[in-house]
């Protein structure tokens, strides 16, 4: 079952991966938002600036990771809407060098999984066209111990090694591997992992009952203060008299991926957690007419015309983000409110591990909330499944003897 983890190396997963596009701590939050929209897990690595233009990425320059939730929370606290997006990334990112590890492309996949189970979220891997690492002889590292390469003493092997070093130093091509890439690899080799993928997650011990939650009536900003490092999510619940919790939605980096940060920040600062995840327009808990309108300047009145109401102005969804006048943007956003993404990603405790993995990959999610199959009511929460829980399940029986 576990042979696939010992026969494959990290370099096998770099095929087709683009080169690292660095986001520096002196870039703006607007640049970070664009980078996050093109990245998995709703977060991107942040690097210190290069000393020279041709300096390659390195673990020494890695600072930490910034997520969509970090940006939305910062803008909400700043209280100045879009103007907060010109702040630099360094003001928001929390330094945590342990989230990224620079690894050799010949590192065994089992070792990569062990690192990710310890909290690593990204691998920085040298990407070189001359490397052909699909065989077992490239698996030189196992649990921190360098293993003897049986071909290392041959002249052809030494020559190949010198060519690899020379080529790598001259091109400096690197790529980043995420936990999503590892999960995609696992989906591609479900047969080699049998029978684990077809087993219910409840029988595998995958369900994590220790999750962070907040009541739907609590302020949305209260949830921000409870967000754990992994998965980066807080579930919004309604608590029944018997103590069971029914899931309403969640506040997470994954849910805020590609969001309108100004609108999301306003909602975080002004709505309850339940309103935030469902959307005030959906449950009509806060009527739009009760929201104060921003002051209208004389130039805006001249543009609209005397005697006409600003409400007569029509906006299409395609125009959001492309309006030049900030007052137009604020008026539209405050009238339309923040539309929450109300449907949380859930599964049953009897779901198979393969089904949960497919859910996460298809939705590009970092976690799936687990509900009780035997409960009479729908949505009774029992736990959460994240990347680390899955990696623990598929490697639990792995041992060198199985290779």
Largest sheet: 3 strands, antiparallel
Radius of gyration: 24 Å
Gap from first CA to last CA: 9 Å
The global form is flat
Can you tell me the residue ranges where pLDDT is under 50 for at least 5 consecutive residues?
A: 130-170, 280-340, 398-403
Number of separate helices: 15
What order do the strands of the largest sheet run in, or round the barrel if closed? 1-2-3
Which structural class is indicated by helix and strand composition? alpha/beta
Helix content: 25-40%
Instruction: List how many beta strands DSSP finds.
Output: 14
Mean pLDDT: 77
Binned strand content = 15-25%
Name the helix and strand elements from N-terminus to C-terminus, one letter apiece. Answer: HHEEHEEHEEEHEHHEHEEHHHHHEHEEH
Describe this structure in words.
- With 403 residues, this protein is an alpha/beta fold.
- The protein is built from 15 helices and 14 strands.
- The chain has helices spanning 3-7, 29-37, 68-78, 109-117, 155-171, 179-188, 201-204, 220-224, 261-270, 273-278, 280-283, 298-304, 326-336, 353-363, 387-395; strands at 43-47, 62-67, 94-95, 100-103, 122-126, 141-142, 145-146, 174-178, 213-215, 233-239, 245-252, 346-348, 367-371, 381-386.
- Strands 1-2-3 form a three-stranded antiparallel beta sheet. The protein has a three-stranded mixed beta sheet with strand order 4-5-8.
- Helix 3 (68-78) crosses helix 9 (261-270) and helix 6 crosses helix 14.
- The radius of gyration is 24 Å and the shape is flat.
- The relative contact order is 0.15.
């Amino acid at each position: 079952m576990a042979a696939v983890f010992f026969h494959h190396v990290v370099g096998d997963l770099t095929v087709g991966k683009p080169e690292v596009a660095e986001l520096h701590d002196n870039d703006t939050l607007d640049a970070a938002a664009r980078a996050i929209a093109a990245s998995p897990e709703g977060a991107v690595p942040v690097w210190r600036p290069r000393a020279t233009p041709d300096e390659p990425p390195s673990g020494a320059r890695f600072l930490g990771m910034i997520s969509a939730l970090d940006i939305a929370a910062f803008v909400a606290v700043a209280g100045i809407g879009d103007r907060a997006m010109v702040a630099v990334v360094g003001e928001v990112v929390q330094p945590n060098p342990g989230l990224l590890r620079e690894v050799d492309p010949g590192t065994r996949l089992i070792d990569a999984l062990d690192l990710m189970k310890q909290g690593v979220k990204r691998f920085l891997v040298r990407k070189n066209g001359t490397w052909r690492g699909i065989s077992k002889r490239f698996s030189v590292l196992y649990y921190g111990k360098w293993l003897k390469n049986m071909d290392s003493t041959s002249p052809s092997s030494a020559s190949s090694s010198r060519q690899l070093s020379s080529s790598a130093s001259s091109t400096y091509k690197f790529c980043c591997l995420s936990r999503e890439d590892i999960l995609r690899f696992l989906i591609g080799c479900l047969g080699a992992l049998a029978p684990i993928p077809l087993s219910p997650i409840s029988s595998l011990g995958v369900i994590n009952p220790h999750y962070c939650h907040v009541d739907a009536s609590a302020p949305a900003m209260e949830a921000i203060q409870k967000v754990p490092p992994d998965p980066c999510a807080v579930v919004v619940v309604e608590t029944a008299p018997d103590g069971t919790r029914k899931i309403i939605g969640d506040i997470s980096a994954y849910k805020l991926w590609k969001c309108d940060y100004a609108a999301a920040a306003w909602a975080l600062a002004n709505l309850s957690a339940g309103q935030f995840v469902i959307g005030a327009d959906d449950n009509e808990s806060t009527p739009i007419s009760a929201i104060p309108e921003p002051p209208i300047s004389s130039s805006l009145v001249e543009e609209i015309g005397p005697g006409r109401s600003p409400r007569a102005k029509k906006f299409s969804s395609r125009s959001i983000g492309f309006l030049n006048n900030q007052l137009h943007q604020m008026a539209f956003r405050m009238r339309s409110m923040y539309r929450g993404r109300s449907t949380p990603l859930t599964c049953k405790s009897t779901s198979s591990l393969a089904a949960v993995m497919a859910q996460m990959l298809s939705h590009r999610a970092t976690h799936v909330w687990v509900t009780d199959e035997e409960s009479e009511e729908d949505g009774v929460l029992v736990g959460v499944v994240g990347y680390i829980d899955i990696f623990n399940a598929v490697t639990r029986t792995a041992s060198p003897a199985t290779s």
